[in-house]
Amino acid sequence: MSTRRLVKSFRDASRGIAYVFRHEQNFRIQLCFALVVVAAMFVFGLRTSEMVVILLLILLVLLLEFLNSAFEKFIDIVKPRLAYQVEVIKDILAAMVLFASLGATVIGLIIFWPHILRLVL
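-> C-alpha cells emitted (121 positions)
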C-alpha cells in the first residue's frame, strides 16, 4: 500500500469517527463513561489483566455503536420500501449495543468491586 493510499485511509476513518461523534448522542455518552472508567482503572490500581479486560469491553461497546450507526444509515436508504422490517432491524441493532453495554457494566462491576471495597473498608 502506498503512503498516499494509507493517508487517505486514515483521513476516511477520521471522517467516520468525527461523523459518529457529531451525530450519535449515544456514542458521546458511551465515550464519556469510557473515559471515566479508564481514569478509575488508574485510581484503583487495577492489575494489567483487569485493565486489558476493561479496555476490550470498552472497545467492544464503541465498535458496536459504530456498526449500529453504519447499519442505521444504510437501512435508511431502503426505508421507504420496507418500513416495518426497517424498524425491527433498527430495534435489534439497538438491542445489540444495549446488551453489550449491560454485559460490560456487569463485568466491570465484578472487576472493580474488590477495589471499591478495599477503598471503603
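The domain at 3-120 is CATH 1.10.287.3610 (Helix Hairpins).
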